[in-house]
Every structure is written in C-alpha cells, then in structure tokens.
Amino acid sequence: MDTPVLDAETPLLAEVTPSALSALGVAPFADTLGFGPRTRVAVLLVDGLGWDLLAAHADDAPVLSQVPRRPLRVGYPATTAAGLAAIGTGVASGEHGFVGYTFDLPGVGVLNALRWRRHPDGEDLHALVSPDEVQRLPTVFARAAQAGLNSTVVSSAQFADTPLTRAVLSGGRYVGTLALGDLAAAVPAALAPAGSFCYAYHGDLDLMGHLHGPGSSPWRMQLRQVDRLVESLIEALPRGAALAVVADHGMVTLDDSVVDLDAEPALTDGVRALAGEARARHVYVEDGAVDDVLAAWREILGERAWVLPRAQAVEAGWFGPVVADRVLPRIGDVVAAARGRSGMVRRVHEPRESALVGQHGSLSSAEQLVPFALAVND
Length: 378
Fold this sequence. Notes:
Layout: H1 16-23, E1 40-46, H2 51-56, H3 62-66, E2 69-73, H4 80-89, H5 93-96, E3 102-105, E4 109-112, E5 117-118, H6 131-134, H7 140-146, E6 150-156, H8 163-168, E7 173-177, H9 180-190, E8 196-202, H10 204-212, H11 217-235, E9 241-246, E10 252-253, E11 259-260, E12 271-277, E13 280-285, H12 290-301, E14 305-309, H13 310-315, E15 334-338, E16 344-345, H14 351-354, E17 358-359, H15 365-368, E18 369-377
Parallel strand pairs: 1-8, 1-9, 6-7, 6-8, 11-16
Antiparallel strand pairs: 2-18, 3-4, 4-5, 9-18, 10-17, 12-13, 13-15, 14-15
Helix pairs in contact: 9-11, 10-11
Pfam families: Phosphodiest
Protein name: AP superfamily protein
Organism: Saccharomonospora azurea NA-128
C-alpha cells in the first residue's frame, strides 16, 4: 500500500504558541512564524476553519481574507483534541499524547478526550483518569506565566474546569465566555497590560460544519460572524500587538463510500477495541492478530483508506517527529486514515458521531491545512 508523503515544508500548528512566546521575549522558544518582536500577542483559534474552506468562501469573510496569511499543517489526527493540545503544549500528538478524539489508555480503556468518559458506553472517568497523567508536559500558558507574562485563556464558560482544559490549557487565567460578544470584549481586556499573551477559542463554525456540512448556508452564516469577530479584535489591537487567527483542522463532507464498521464482521474479528473517529481510526487488536486484522482492513477498505501498522505510521511521521514511549501504546496496532470523502463510521456504537454530515481527522489537504492569518498594529 502506498503511504502518503507528509508536507515537511509547511509549518505546523504546534509552532504557533512557541512563536508567540518568542515574540514576547520568552526563552528558549523560537519565532518560526514571524510574529515579533511584540509587547502583546493574541491567538484566536476558530474550530474547523480550513485553509481550503476559507479560500472557497472568501466573500463571506472579507476581513479575514485580506489579512496576510499562510497555511499551517495541523498534524495527525486532524481533530480538536489533538489541535488544542498542540496549541497548549507546542508539540505534536506523539509527544503530548492526545492521539485522537478517542484513544486507548492502557489499564483504563478507550477514553473520549473531549467528554472524559469511557468510549463508547459513556462511563464517567473524571475520578479515575487524571489530566496530569494523560498529558505530563508543561503548558505554554504556564511557561508564559512563569516568565512574568499576563497569560490568559478565553473560551466557553462550560469548558472552564474540564479535564481537557486542565490537561492542555492550564497555567494561565481562564476567562469563561457565553457568546461572541463577551469573547470579543474579553480578548482586548486581556491584552490591556503590556507583556500579555492571550489565547481565545471559538467553536461554533465547527458545529455548523458537522451538522450541516462545511460550506453549507448555516456554515457560511457562521463564518460571517467569525469575520466580524476578527474585525472587532483587529480594531481593538493596541500598538505593538499582534493577532494570529488559526484553526485546529478543516473538514470534508462524507459521500456514499462510507463504511459502517459495525456492519462488517470481518473488520472486528480479532479486534479488542476501536477508537479515533470516522476519518481517523485506531484499531487495537488481540494478541497475535495484527497481521490478520491488517489484511482484512486493507482488503475491505481498499482505496477508501490508508491502512498501516503502528510502526509504519510512526516511522512515516504521522504523529510528529517524536513519539514518546508513554504515548506509543495509545496509537492503534493498526491505523486507518480515510481517503477521498470516505469514512469509517459505527452506526450502532457511535450513532451521534456517525450521523454527522461533516467530518475530519485524516490527511487530506482539506483537513490538514488551516490558515495562519497575522494582523499587527505597529
């Protein structure tokens, strides 16, 4: 089977926050993206805003489309948990350990990283699984605060004390928001003192893409609101400040080549657990069954997915240049990344996720490439 060649020339999403801290004078980070030097930096992450989608719908985002921008590659898997962790730690999934929307934790089972519940049965794991154990690296927000910066995270109030927030966004002051209005007001307030670093998150564009499809009318209407938010933040930038607008992944609309894993017994023979999501699957197998499972998945999925054993996916750099020993077992014994507009759904075990129109996670440019749009006030 052919293996996709990763684009090594395009900077990674994981470079954004280290570059921002470098621009603010924090050692030993390097400003690889050209932020600085700056007295204040804000990073706005718009969940689901792919590079291709922004280009295709530039008329709905006239402000954002006029800001100088370049593409970033988000890394694998192209999903929110991994993307937020890349922002929060400055490293790829092989080091921070959030290798999927769901993934197997040895001794625990499959963890849903967003809900912090066992997947797919929903058992609450808050008391059993510590965020500090899942993600052990210091966050960039903690390092910013230690360096004397005013470090702030602006995001939905409902995420203020979730395990995912504690794992990858802790270390700074958390400002919970309820709507676009208080998000638009909170970022300038966080940047008011010199020496400020602010990260803000907006998630509704991703929601519209999942429910109605990327590029749909509801998605485009939401993009217009995002553009107004960006305009407001640019207008409020103090002198010496920079605003970077990025995303955690793009999105595609699935077609009729989708495979229902729950309806294909041959795809679950020898499999002890399935994780990931529709476009990026981790397959954990019974002892001695790797070769048989790999062969079955390759035969049945055919050209609809790249299917690799764990070692080959790691060697190919899917999970970044480094995969930590503690992270390696979280990666499936077999890894499947969807091609084209196909997907690997589970309509019985994952009915809510399987019903979504828009999906992401894999290695296509539509999912991997996101904008790095940089506005400055000199």
